[in-house]
Amino acid sequence: MPGTGPMEGMRVYNMKLGMWVFLLSEVMFFSGLIGSYIVLRFASPEQWAEPNVVLNVPLTGLNTFILICSSVTMVKAFAAIEHGDQAGLKKWLVGTILLGSTFLSIQVYEYIKLIHEGFVPMAARYAAEGGPLYGSTFYTMTGFHGTHVTIGVLCLIFTAIKAFRGKYSKDNYAGVEVIGLYWHFVDLVWIILFTIVYLI
Amino acid sequence: MADETTIERKHPRYFLIWFYLLVLTVAEVMVAFVSHLPDAVAIIVLLILAVWKAALVAMYYMHLKFEPPRLVVMVLAALPLAILLTLIVLQEGF
Fold first, then answer.
1. Do B70 and A9 touch (CB under 8 A)?
2. Residue B37 has pLDDT above 90, yes or no
3. What ipTM, to 2 d.p.?
4. Which of left, alpha, beta for A56 (phi over 0: left; psi -120 to 50: alpha)?
């Protein structure tokens, strides 16, 4: 038991319940974005190009793989501390931070390359490869997700610092579990976005 | 208080789930760019694969499968609302 707050009623401790409620609000946030994307895309199909013409799908596929790997390392960190394995916690947390940072680095590289090629939000000069709506929605959706990943990496660094200071134990692992939930949610959202933005 | 049995039950074979996710991701790319399925069929298959992957992450990595039923109900209750929100937004476009 992580030992943070009452467990009656919902039978989960307060921090975890709070994170789940926050994540459910995030579900609504991304549902609004995805719904808007679908409306705009079907209302103005002429503004969309084939994804693999404009976007580097193999590179993003690799990035998707990296984010999935980071989910494994995150859950292994949680499993380690639940069993009191301090070394395992540190090892898997650092792995998650490295993989998350790699994901962000690749996304930044993708943005730089796309912008250099003229694929920028609200510009109509690349009409042959879709119109301004395509660029706007692409950067809005992937940008909001990237912001979430950035916040996740910062929280993971904070968690790792606490882990290296020995703040977590077999009886006190709420911080690891809660940031883990957030990180897996970010992975889950990317799974949906990758399909909608890059594959369809 | 979680005893050892509970802890074991809460930790499925994470690398097996990872392998499933990898295979499903490769399948998605194949469906999108290699297969010659009609567009409508490909979109439906891709959405099913995406939901399948998301469900694997939620159930096994977020441990929703092993959480108390009340929490599961609370989480699942948001999904129809999310679908409803999407449908309401769609009304704007058609």
1. yes
2. no
3. 0.87
4. beta
Domain boundaries, chain A: 14-199
**pLDDT value at position A4?**
60
Contacts of A12 in chain B (CB under 8 A): 67-68, 71
What distance lies between CA A178 and its chain's CA centroid?
15
Q: Helix or strand or coil: residue A128?
A: strand
pTM: 0.90
Query: How many pairs of residues across A and B have Cβ atoms under 8 Å apart?
Result: 125
Question: What is the identity of the amino acid at A158?
Answer: F
Q: What mean pLDDT is predicted for residues A3-29?
A: 83
Q: CATH homologous superfamily for A14-199?
A: Cytochrome c oxidase, subunit III, four-helix bundle (1.20.120.80)
Chain Cα centroid distance, residue B2: 27
The pLDDT mean for chain A works out to: 89
Where are chain B's structural domains?
4-62, 68-94
